[in-house]
Design goal:
Distance between the termini: 43 Å
Shape: elongated
Strand content: 15-25%
Structural class: alpha+beta
Bound molecules: ligand MTE, molybdenum atom
Largest sheet: 5 strands, mixed
CATH architecture of the largest domain: Up-down Bundle
CATH topology of the largest domain: Fumarate Reductase Cytochrome B subunit
Number of domains: 2
Radius of gyration: 26 Å
Length: about 500
């Protein structure tokens, strides 16, 4: 006899909680680059849908940060504009809980025989579901007897939600991880590309929203008393007062939890970063171990490549630029036996040139393919001979960052573990698409670490320092965006 055992009711409720958090954090992430594409070049105008009304100027340099839209904190988990670090943190943390809960739920379904409630075992489900649909369409309600425990249309819908739509969200979610698609480009191709994965993930979200609206409407209007009893006290013969009390308390708690998370996160960004990242990092590390093996072809190169992080206004970089960076030198020091200082000429003359055609993945969501030419970081590491206690490389840039109000902040910097930098597609690039690195893309030299998100790849390089601990650098979180915008540091998803 199929009923509503306690574990099923709890699983259902936890699912509601996690779904609300996933949806709100997802919308916040989308607001940071509120355009969706079916192509991975992301040229302005090539999107199939755009939220917000911003139009970028044609005659002056803009960056992807300018494209971010503000979002209401009721919809977005942290609200406002460019609150991406916290949104990602909540999205990934909740995703872990949602998948775990779903996994337990499905396991118990099969262990207890309850799976029969969702999995249709006869093709007659289709004509039967159609019949139910016609009943609703003519503003009639199927009799209670049609529910055992669900009517055919309900059963078919739930089956699709649990066994098709949910796995698809996981599959398309993974299809956006730079580490995963960097290591397995075929996976990305199978989904139609990085942006197709992103678009499909969004359409999956829309399907969930449509489902929730219909589901809630039907519960409210069709045999609602029985359904509410089923999902709270486990059956229609229980205590109605208890059932309706549980029902409203559960909704109240869901709302309060959402408000509390938004409120707390906005006030304690750093604490939320420090508390949640260790959980998320378990998965970030697993994916982060995958070395990039991308080999796109010349014809994949994006005709247009979005910029993020405008060229430095700083006088020292401006002076170097005047002279085509002939006086520029990369200072390498810290925990190394042989510190050195290398000009562009030195880099070209003394190291083997490597080239790679790869896909760039910005944390905001856009992508682009380019050919990068330069020196392999592992060659550089061999040259300077780090001491055995050196664990990280810190990359310092020339650009001072300004906040959205134009207030001057600190200098850009980033870092990697030596392990990450020993990967074959970790290079320092002085060329893009066969030409000297353009000013806005990081001249004269930038990092390319192809299995990571774009913000890790420091442009306008000034110096490199080998260190044993990141906690003493900047605010100690591994980079400018980690310190100031609360981004996560591994950035493999
Ligand atoms: N020095 C410096 N490096 C930087 C940035 C920056 O603002 N300053 N932005 C980062 C971000 S968020 C991204 S997505 C990439 C963008 O590279 P692109 O402008 O060549 O597309 O550079 C990264 N490196
Ligand atoms: Mo970025």
């Amino acid at each position: 006899m199929l009923g509503f055992p306690l574990w099923l009711r709890i699983g259902h409720y936890l699912n509601i909680i996690f779904m609300t958090l996933l949806m709100r954090s997802g919308m916040q992430i989308l607001a940071d680059h509120p355009m969706l594409y079916w192509n991975d070049d992301c040229a302005p105008g090539s999107e199939w849908i755009k939220f917000g009304k911003k139009v970028m100027p044609k005659d002056k340099l803009w960056t992807s940060l300018d494209q971010a839209e503000a979002i209401n904190p009721v919809l977005g988990i942290t609200g406002g504009r460019h609150n991406l670090g916290a949104a990602r943190r909540w999205h990934f943390f909740t995703a872990i809980l949602w998948v775990t809960n779903g996994f337990i739920y499905v396991t118990l379904l099969f262990a207890t025989g309850e799976w029969l409630r969702y999995v249709p075992v006869s093709w007659s489900i289709f004509p039967d579901a159609w019949h139910t649909f016609l009943t609703y369409a003519s503003f009639h309600v199927p009799p209670l007897a049609a529910y055992n425990p669900f009517d055919p249309l309900q059963q078919l819908t739930y089956f699709i939600i649990i066994f098709i739509l949910s796995p698809l969200q996981i599959i398309t979610g993974l299809g956006m991880s730079p580490s995963f698609i960097g290591r397995f480009p075929w996976y990305s191709k199978m989904l139609g590309g990085k942006q197709a994965a992103r678009s499909l993930h969004f359409l999956g979200f829309v399907s969930f929203v449509v489902f929730v609206i219909i589901h809630v409407t039907l519960v409210a209007f069709v045999h609602s008393r029985t359904l509410i009893m089923n999902i709270t006290v486990g059956g229609p013969t229980g205590n109605w007062n208890l059932a309706i009390t549980i029902f409203w308390l559960a909704i109240l708690f869901m709302i309060l939890l959402n408000v509390a998370i938004t409120w707390y996160t906005l006030r304690h960004q750093r604490r939320v970063q420090d508390i949640l990242d260790p959980f998320v990092n378990v998965f970030m590390r697993i994916l982060g171990r995958l070395p990039s093996r991308q080999a796109y072809t010349e014809k994949d190169i994006s005709p247009y490549f979005i910029v993020n992080g405008p060229p430095p206004r700083d006088a020292d970089w401006q002076t170097l630029k005047e002279n085509d960076f002939k006086d520029w030198k990369l200072e390498i020091g810290g925990l190394v036996k042989r510190p050195c200082s290398l000009s562009l000429e030195d880099l070209k003359r003394e190291f083997t040139k490597v080239e790679q055609i790869t896909k760039h993945n910005c944390i905001q969501g856009w992508s682009g393919v380019a050919k990068w030419g330069g020196v392999s970081v592992s060659d550089l590491i061999k040259r300077v001979e780090p001491f055995s206690k050196a664990r990280y490389m810190v990359f310092y840039a020339y650009d001072t960052k300004y906040d959205t109000e134009g207030v001057e902040g600190r200098k850009y910097y980033g870092s990697f573990t030596l392990k990450e930098m020993m990967m074959p597609q970790s290079i320092l690039a002085y060329e893009m698409n066969g030409k000297p690195l353009p000013l806005e893309h990081g001249a004269p030299l930038r990092v390319r670490a192809e299995s990571r998100l774009g913000f890790k790849m420091v442009k306008y390089l000034k110096s490199i320092e080998f260190v044993d601990d990141l906690r003493t650098i900047g605010d100690g979180h591994g980079g400018y965006r980690q310190d100031v915008q609360f981004y996560d540091n591994i950035a493999s998803i």
